[in-house]
Amino acid sequence: MENLKADLSRLSEALALGYRKLNKDLYNERCIEVVCDTFGVDLHQLFGRTRVRHITYCRFILFDYMYNYGKFTLQYIGSIFNRSHSMVMHGNKNHKDLLKVKDPIYLEMVEQFKVNI
User: Which DSSP category does 70 fall into?
Assistant: First the structure.
């Protein structure tokens, strides 16, 4: 009987973990979809190595949103974008710096993202 309880307990934990992972994946897909639709960026550009300004700005917005609102780890966010956690940290720092200096292009992009999310 105790073995059955232990097995049920492990099964329910595994199901809960799978459910949380599914929710994470849906959350990520939604954020990425909003950025692609709002700014006309395709997935290849977003996940690629290009350093074109409006595409890097899209990445910065996603890094910040996923980290601060999605509560994902830097490593997890980096794994989604095939980048290191330090690159995500750098993107978050750039996000804060661009807001601080009030870059008009970046501020407009952030506002559009907030409206559409």
Answer: S
> Given the structure tokens 């709002």, which residue do they identify?
38
Please, what are the domains in the chain?
2-116 (1.10.1750.10)
Look at residues 28, 26, 97 and name the one whose alpha carbon lies nearest to residue 57: 97
Model pLDDT for residues 1-27, shown as the tens digit of each residue: 555 555 455 545 544 444 445 567 777
Distance CA 89, CA 83 (A): 11
Q: How far is CA 61 from the centre of its chain?
A: 9
Task: Label residue 95 exposed, middle or buried (CB < 10 Å: 0-12, 13-18, 19+).
Answer: buried
Cα–Cα distance, 75 to 71 (Å, whole number): 12
